[in-house]
Design a protein that fits this description.
The chain has three helices and eight strands. By secondary structure, the protein is an alpha/beta fold. The chain has a four-stranded mixed β-sheet with strand order 1-4-3-2, with helices on one face. The protein has a four-stranded mixed β-sheet with strand order 5-8-7-6, covered by helices on one side.
Amino acid sequence: MTPTPNNSPLGPCSPLFIVRDLATSLAHYHGQLGFDIRFQSPEIDPFFAMVGRGSAQFMLKAIAGVAPTPNPARHAWAKWDAFIFVDDPDTLAHELINRGTTLRVPLGDTDDGLRGFEVADPDGYVCFFGRPL
């Protein structure tokens, strides 16, 4: 696709997830999913971080008095909070399982023409890792 003034190419997107406990979330994204911790703030007792793997990136923020509200908790049809495109979901699923990650929905082909799997984080945010068939 050739970019035009009204169709500029876009880069990666970084959704913000409000979390209960930043340390717990970082342990999940780093330890279970293999994301790098790219930024934390403030230095002492951080409440904000950015994690990423390849071009996939999330911002995580603990806000006192504000509870996480994942899409699946709001409506059954809103089953994902993020779609992460993966060329080879089979290999990634096996890697994550070997890391001890529990897949919320196992690797497979979906009714809507995708191949991949789902992982839920400690706050209930659901990420689908996959690609079109």
